[in-house]
Design goal:
By secondary structure, the chain is an all-alpha fold. About 75% of the residues lie in helices and about 0% in strands. It is built from five helices and no strands. Helix 1 crosses helix 3.
Amino acid sequence: MPLGGWRIWGWPMFGLFLILLGPFALFGTPLHFLAMTWAVLLVLALWTFLISAWIGAMAGTATTGLSWLEGRLRLWVARFAPDPEALWLQWARQAHRPATARWC
């Protein structure tokens, strides 16, 4: 049975959403400086990712920045999956990577 849909992606993505954007709920409170600091850190992280992706594209790396980001996102989702081994096996098969599927 294929794994996927909101059963797998919903809760991890909701958790990631809360981690990334939750501190913005502090605007309008006495802790607004934490929300502003978090916003600056997110902008700096995005800037760093974009610059590193650009440098990687100019250098002709085999793995693009978006592929790396997708891998990190899949690691996050698999961490909360009920059966992470089956999930990685399905992802490897969907990507037509038989060597990775055998490794999983």
